[in-house]
Amino acid sequence: MRSVSCFGFALCGSHARNELTPVLKTLRKNGIDVVAIHHHMTQERPLVIFLHYSGQGPPDKLASAFKATLDQLGAGARAYATSH
Question: What are the b/e assignments for 29-63, b being 16+ CB within 10 Å?
C-alpha cells in the first residue's frame, strides 16, 4: 500500500529560525520533499515560518518520517540556548 502526504506546519516564536534547519534535515533524511518555506509578513512578531512538504510511500514510513520531524521541534532552540 502506498500513500501520499502533502501537508505543512508552522514554526513560531523566537526560536523558529533555529528550529528550521533540524526540521528540514530530518524531513529530507526521511525522504520527504520540502516544497515551500515562507512567511507572510516581513515584520511579523512573533515570527511564523510556514513549511510545506510532500512525501510518497508506505503509510508507516510517512508516519515515522513525520514523527521524527516532530521530535526535532525544539532541538534547534535547545542547541542555540546551550551555545550562548
Answer: ebebeeeeeeeeeeeeeeeebebebebebeeebbe
Q: Give the 3-state secondary structure of residue 17.
A: helix
pLDDT in tens, 11-29: 888 778 888 888 899 999 9
15 grid coordinates:
526560536
Predicted TM-score (pTM) above 0.85: no
Closest CA to 20 of 75, 67, 81, 71: 75
- Report angle CA 78, 81, 84 to the nearest 5 degrees: 150
Selected from 3.40.50.720, 3.40.50.12160, 3.30.70.260, 3.30.980.10, the CATH number assigned to the domain covering 3-75 reads: 3.30.70.260
